[in-house]
């Protein structure tokens, strides 16, 4: 028996050494962890036997299109389990992590070395998760790859004719992609790098390049308007701004009903900027239309309620100034319109203040301006409503109690 026990002791380290030589992935892991590793290896083999990389990436795209990025990441990772160096899968995974706000994982994807001169999407994703000059460098590299791809596309299309690249093939790079990338760089020079020497000139230069590749890009037109307002060339800025909204705001388009349904609006944040610029340009009615669209899309953004109240207040003040200049009393219709504007302004601003406290925002200047305007308008609206819970629809006429806690960043 003693010999048997001794023999067992000798055999244990031998088995451990064999595992280390043949399967280093499980060295030092607990029994449960080893089981998980082996199950994962088995799942990878099963996936490879059952699905092709193409099928897995198609499922990835489906989940990305429905904004289910967790499931998209799962299928994309399965594709990489089968083919670890698949550039398309790596591009997609980088984009997925970027959309999920996981900057660390996005940075960890070491696919740049695999094919540095193809796949512009990876550089755009990295540009989104970096800041300052580092972001600019990624965008510029992405643009370089884009322009190279466009050049090859043009060369290939000449002998084959226009039918070589059907318009519905959305995977092919376009001049719009180049324009959008240049817009991203221009925005960095308006924000992160605004204090850099020559930042204004660089910003303008990148906007001009964006417009060169897509003259009707609403984002580029709006950025040019922002730049012109910042250098006090307001009339020119206003012209660019109106060109921008003419491309997507329904009331500004002379188009058929079918065309209107196919309009692609700029991102939500970009439209908030549009509303601000329209207010600055005193295009109040157009600003109202933009803000109404934003509220229909998402009614829990403090800034949108605040701007809606602000524009109503400004419309009311303009009407009063007009009566003063003409030295006359308001007609019954004008008086009714004034009362409606005043009530609307109070409603929007009251809602902005309540939502500010509900979401525990941290933008003191906005809160102070809201309170100042409400003071001029005679205070908040007072209507008895049940308190709105965090998952319920927010009613602009509700009367939630304000939180007593200190506001935190929103």
Summarize the structure.
This protein is mainly alpha-helical. It contains 18 helices and no strands. Among the domains are: about 80 residues, Alpha Horseshoe (Serine Threonine Protein Phosphatase 5, Tetratricopeptide repeat), CATH 1.25.40; about 110 residues, no CATH class.
General description of the model:
GO terms for molecular function: phosphatidylinositol binding. One of its GO terms (cellular component) is membrane. This protein is an all-alpha fold. Helix content is 69%, strand content 0%. α10 runs antiparallel to α11. The longest helix has 29 residues. The chain is globular, with a radius of gyration of 29 Å.
Q: What's the helical proportion of residues?
A: 55-70%
> Treating each run of at least 4 consecutive H or I residues as one helix, how many helices?
18
Give me the secondary-structure category.
Answer: mainly alpha
Poorly predicted segments: 1-27, 384-410
Biased composition (Acidic residues): 379-410
Protein name: Assembly chaperone of rpl4
Biased composition (Basic residues): 1-17
GO molecular function, one term: phosphatidylinositol binding
Structure characteristics:
410 residues; mainly alpha; Serine Threonine Protein Phosphatase 5, Tetratricopeptide repeat; 69% helix; globular; disordered N terminus; disordered C terminus
Helices and strands, with pairings:
Elements: H1 2-22, H2 31-50, H3 53-65, H4 69-82, H5 87-99, H6 103-108, H7 120-129, H8 132-160, H9 175-190, H10 199-213, H11 218-230, H12 234-246, H13 257-261, H14 268-280, H15 284-297, H16 302-326, H17 332-358, H18 364-377
Helix pairs in contact: 2-4, 3-4, 4-5, 5-7, 7-8, 8-9, 9-10, 9-11, 10-11, 11-12, 14-15, 14-16, 15-16, 16-17, 17-18
């Amino acid at each position: 028996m003693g010999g048997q026990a001794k023999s067992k002791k000798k055999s244990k380290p031998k088995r451990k050494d064999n595992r280390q030589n043949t399967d280093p992935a499980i060295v030092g892991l607990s029994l449960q962890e080893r089981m998980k590793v082996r199950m994962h290896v088995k799942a990878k083999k099963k996936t490879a036997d059952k699905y092709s990389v193409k099928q897995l990436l198609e499922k990835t795209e489906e989940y990305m299109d429905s904004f289910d990025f967790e499931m998209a990441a799962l299928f994309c990772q399965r594709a990489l389990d089968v083919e670890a160096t698949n550039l398309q899968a790596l591009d997609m995974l980088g984009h997925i992590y970027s959309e999920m706000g996981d900057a660390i994982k996005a940075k960890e994807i070491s696919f740049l070395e695999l094919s540095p001169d193809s796949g512009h999407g990876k550089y755009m994703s990295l540009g989104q998760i970096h800041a300052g000059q580092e972001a600019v460098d990624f965008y510029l590299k992405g643009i370089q790859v884009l322009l190279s791809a466009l050049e090859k596309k043009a060369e290939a299309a000449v002998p084959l004719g226009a039918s070589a690249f059907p318009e519905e093939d959305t995977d092919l790079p376009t001049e719009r992609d180049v324009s959008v990338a240049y817009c991203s760089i221009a925005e960095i020079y308006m924000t992160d790098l605004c204090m850099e020497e020559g930042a204004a000139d660089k910003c303008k230069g990148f906007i001009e390049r964006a417009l060169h590749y897509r003259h009707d890009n609403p984002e580029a037109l709006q950025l040019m308007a922002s730049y012109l307002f910042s250098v006090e060339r307001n009339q020119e800025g206003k012209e660019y701004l109106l060109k921008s909204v003419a491309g997507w705001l329904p009331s500004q388009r002379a188009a058929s009903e079918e065309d209107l349904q196919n309009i692609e609006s700029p991102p939500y944040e970009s439209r908030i900027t549009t509303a601000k610029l329209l207010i600055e340009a005193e295009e109040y009615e157009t600003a109202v239309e933009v803000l109404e669209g934003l509220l229909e899309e998402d009614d829990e953004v403090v800034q949108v309620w605040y701007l809606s109240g602000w524009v109503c207040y400004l419309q009311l003040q303009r009407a009063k100034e007009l009566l003063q200049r003409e030295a006359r009393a308001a007609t019954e219709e004008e008086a009714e319109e004034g009362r409606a504007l005043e009530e609307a302004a109070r409603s929007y601003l009251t809602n902005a203040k309540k939502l500010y406290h509900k979401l525990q925002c941290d933008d003191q200047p906005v809160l102070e301006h809201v309170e100042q305007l409400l003071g001029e308008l005679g205070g908040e609206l007072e209507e008895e409503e049940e308190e709105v819970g965090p998952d319920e629809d927010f009613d602009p006429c509700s009367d939630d109690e304000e939180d007593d806690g200190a506001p935190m960043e929103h």
